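Data deposition worksheet. Section B asks for the primary sequence of the deposited chain exactly as it was used as input, without tags or linkers unless they were present during the calculation. Section C holds the resulting structure in token form. Section D is free text for depositor observations; keep each observation to a single sentence. Incomplete worksheets are returned to the depositor.
Section A, Depositor: J.P.
Section B:
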Amino acid sequence: MAAQHHTQHHKKTGVFTSVLNRAVEGLIRLGVGPAGARTLAVRGRTSGAWRTTPVNPLEFQGEHYLVAPRGHTQWVRNLRAAGGGELRLGGRANRFTAVELPDTEKPVVLRAYLKRWHWEVGAFFDGVGPSSTDEELLAIADRHPVFRISWGK
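Section C:
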């Protein structure tokens, strides 16, 4: 079942976040993924060129996920089109395929993601946090794409 795209919610990156993202990407290239961060590499949907951005992958109940805290960003659109990409740390690149979750499956993953990363991404979730109800998480689910990823494809 394909995910529903009710809105094109997208929180723009501010100057501070842009500078921080560049610093984190530099550390990841050196093989140091702060708090588990990785560089997501996905082929651009028009150019075909690799596009990169730092992400916070989530391992939860034996599955791996990518959550888009800022909403329907360029990396989300590229990942939808490409169906997969790479998560990079230092010189290692782990290939994956991705399947977007429907909104109804997102609350449990969003809660786990917010438990792990709220300190960093909480501002992008409009007051919803790890202790929010399932209903509150479902109410924002369409604003935050979630992909289940599978390795080595």
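Section D:
Confidence is low (pLDDT under 50) at residues 1-7.
The domain at 15-151 is CATH 2.30.110.10 (Pnp Oxidase; Chain A).
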